[in-house]
Design brief:
alpha+beta, Immunoglobulin-like, 4-stranded antiparallel sheet, 4-stranded mixed sheet, binds 2-acetamido-2-deoxy-beta-D-glucopyranose
């Protein structure tokens, strides 16, 4: 009898552990929900990235539920210089189509838009800031949750 009780206790303990890790997994998923975006790679001036498959990716968690169509808006996307950056409407991968000049434009403030097939917004637009790095600067620090944030140090 004591042995059976022991086994039941053991099983209960395992269930308790499984339960805990399950809820931890759920928390992780919820946290991921806010991660809408893969931050941009370093984008240096005077470097030709046009052959890269992508320099950033926008993504909506709604993607798991239904089809999403992505688009970009802002200067460098749907405003001059038009189509310097484009997004694959289905994958959310952001491509660059020109070589950047930091003196001309140090930062591009784009917004990623995610829509359902019926055209309504799936999420709030996401800021996609693309910071053009100086040719001679050190590698910048990217914040995974906030995208690219880069303060230029004194010359
Ligand atoms: C960038 O590279 C591509 C592919 O090699 C080339 O076609 C394009 O002319 C280059 N752009 C510039 C501005 O050098
Ligand atoms: C558009 O589609 C989404 C997802 O299928 C749905 O949740 C939403 O209610 C729809 N909006 C309209 C205005 O029909
Ligand atoms: C990155 O995020 C941390 C906290 O999330 C913040 O303290 C830090 O200042 C951020 N760094 C940059 C470069 O924005």
């Amino acid at each position: 009898m004591a042995k059976i009780c022991g086994i039941i206790l053991f099983v209960a303990l395992i269930l308790a552990i499984l339960n805990t890790s399950a809820s931890e997994g759920q928390q992780k998923k919820i946290r991921q929900k806010r991660e809408w975006i893969i931050p941009p790679h370093n984008v240096r001036e005077n470097v030709n990235y046009t052959n890269r498959e992508y320099i950033a990716k926008i993504r909506s968690d709604e993607e798991t539920r239904t089809s999403i169509r992505y688009s970009l808006t802002g200067s460098g996307a749907d405003q001059p210089p038009i189509h310097l950056f484009t997004v694959n409407r289905e994958t959310g991968l952001v491509k660059i189509h020109g070589v950047l000049d930091r003196e001309k434009t140090p930062v591009y403030y784009l917004r990623g838009v995610a829509r359902f097939l019926n055209g309504s917004h799936a999420e709030k637009d996401i800021d996609l800031r693309i910071v053009v790095e100086d040719e001679n600067d050190n590698a910048p620090v990217f914040n995974l949750t906030t995208g690219a944030v880069y303060e230029r140090s004194a010359i």
